[in-house]
Amino acid sequence: MRGSDYDGSDYDHTVVIAGGGPTGLMLAGELALAGVDVAIVERRTSQQVIGQRAGGLHCRTIELLDQRGIADRFLAAGQAVQIAGFAQIRLDISDFPTPHPYGLALWQNEIERLLAEWVDELGVPIRRGVEVTGLTQGEGGVEVELSEDGPLRAEYLLGCDGGRSLVRKAAGIGFPGWEPTTSYLIAQVEVRDEPTLGIHRDAIGTHGLDRQNDTEPVRVMVTERNVGPATEPTLDDLSAALTAVYGTDFGIHSPTSIARFTDASRQAATYREGRILLAGDAAHIHHPIGGQGLNTGLQDAVNLGWKLAQVVNGTAPDTLLDTYHAERHPVGARVLQTTMAQMALLRTDDRTKALHDNISEMLGIDEVRKTFAARMSGLDIRYDLGPGHPLLGRRMPDLDVATADGPRRAFEPLHAARPVLLDLDEPGGIDLAGWGDRVSLIAARYQGAWELPALGEVAAPTRVLIRPDGHVAWVGEGSSDGLNEALTRWFGPPV
Questions:
Q1: SS (H, E, C) 411-476
Q2: pLDDT over 50 at 1, yes or no
Q3: What is the pLDDT of residue 406?
Q4: Could you give the 3-state DSSP secondary structure of residue 300?
Q5: Where is the FAD-binding domain (predicted)?
Q6: What's the distance, CA 14 to chain centroid?
Q7: CA distance 361 to 136
Q8: Scanning 110, 199, 391, 464, which has the fewest C-beta atoms within 10 Å of its C-beta?
Q9: Cβ–Cβ under 8 Å, residues 478 and 462
């Protein structure tokens, strides 16, 4: 990354997002809801995803979409199923206190299509068929060099451009981690000889063949005997890998797609370098077991979007952006750790199989099951906001509350991506005059205790300050002590 005298004048857009995958689209939507001038640069000429990619949304991600009022679109397109698991051991969350005690089976093609439609409704421009080729960060902004029609000038640049992120590399951000020990080929191909479909395990690893119907190509996932090169795989590579496992390549031909992935685990040393921030695969990569990659990226976006919006809109100081790394880097690190643990349990030797069987028995214990199911579904994430009520830093439960206008869900006021102060005490005791332009005040009533996944019931507070990402920033227990400090910390000083 070169230095520059660029002072940030004459912006083309306030924020430019490199990458129009799920994370980039979610970030664009979050920023657009806050009135930020944001644009996406995407190297693909269409939103179509070639080949197999992520195939599901976890419970917490569905909640985030619900908080924006768009979850129904995804639920209508997918299938609600119990997809949470650890090392391919299923973890049932049907008894969890959430409006969505399940996962959603939905291919990435559909996830991206629905997010792109939402972003289009919000008026976000997407420049397709264009790649970021370099960048120059100055004191007041970033110049983004493009493969054509560049450069673009922006106040902030967001790298959502995948595991090989050029933005991350150009910003000089390290990507430490663990080298691959195993590689896999995934493909969609036509076959001459119809294979036996299903999962197959042997000394090499885990493999799978699948097709939705007789007219579709066969979906292939095969573990390679040795870690493959970083080059693009060929049909010959796939033929050799299939033959090593099945004794035949089934006469594969006419591939729709062939790709290679590994169990490499890496995480960006920092999620922020000045006016450049990373999210999604640009910030963390790992084996896809457990299905946490895409979900973690979408959750990165919802954590960052409202913070960046407040900074560029001038209501909060630039230092608010430092909390993005502080909160999300530990989450990413735990995802990497959890993923590596699952992969270790899937080795095919007899000793590892015995360990896997023992872990499976442990996960049958209800308390252990709830702990790991909350982790894998994203429901247990707690940001360290200091000591206090058990709800502090955790996701806000979607309570059914009674308001003067009738019954209301706690998620509904979050549709506009604005912070909410939910007042469950006697009305009239809160003065939000200094933050009235930024924080919605909802007076309501709620009967009963609050329940959190894996924690059980917690004491019901009298007031709750909810951030736009749905996490609790402050809890009142019979008083308003600390409220003004929390409002200032997260939403800027009073006007």
A1: CHHHHHCCCEEEECCCCCCCCCHHHCCCCEEEECECCCCEEECCCEEECCCCEEEECCCCEEEEEE
A2: no
A3: 83
A4: helix
A5: 14-338
A6: 23
A7: 54
A8: 199
A9: yes
pLDDT per position as a tens digit, 377-416: 999 999 999 998 999 999 999 988 888 888 889 999 999 9
Q: What's the one-letter identity of residue 56?
A: G
Buried b / exposed e over 230-266, threshold 16 CB at 10 Å, is eeebeeebbbebbebbbeebbebeebeebebbbbbbb
Q: How far apart are CA 288 and CA 264, in angstroms?
A: 10
Nearest to 220, CA basis, from 294, 200, 85: 200
Q: Do 463 and 425 form a contact (C-beta atoms < 8 A)? A: yes
Helix (H) / strand (E) element for 336: namely: helix 322-345
Domains of the chain and CATH, by start: 13-55+107-177+266-346 (3.50.50.60), 182-262 (3.30.70.2450), 400-491 (3.40.30.120)
Q: How far apart are CA 335 and CA 323, in angstroms?
A: 19
Smallest CA-to-CA distance from 137 within 321, 311, 276, 279 is with 276
HSE (side-chain half, CA atoms, 13 Å) at 82: 13
Token digits for 491?
Answer: 């939403």
Total residues belonging to the chain: 495
> In the 8-state DSSP scheme, what is residue 186?
E
Residue with tokens 């070639």: 50
Kindly report the number of other CB atoms within 10 A of residue 425's CB atom: 17
Q: Is the pLDDT of residue 440 over 60?
A: yes
Placement of tokens 């560029």 in the chain: 312
**Farthest-apart Cα atoms in the chain, separation:** 75
Number of Cβ within 10 Å of residue 49's Cβ equals 19
Tell me, what amino acid is at 60? R
- Cα dihedral sign, 61-164-182-49: positive
Token pair listed for 484: 């003004």
Query: Dihedral, CA atoms, 363, 367, 369, 374, nearest 10 degrees?
Result: -150
pTM of structure: 0.93
Handedness of CA 33, 37, 42, 48 (dihedral sign): positive
Structure tokens of 151? 């450069």
Tokens of 212: 């939705």
Distance of CA 345 to the CA centre of its chain: 25
In this structure, are residues 268 and 171 in contact, taking their beta carbons and an 8 Å threshold? no
Return d(Cα 296, Cα 337) in angstroms, integer.
14
Q: Tokens 């420049």, residue?
A: 127
Dist CA 361 CA 149 (whole Å): 58
- For residue 289, with 0-12 CB atoms within 10 Å meaning exposed, 13-18 middle and 19 or more buried, which class applies? buried
Structure tokens at 144: 């983004």
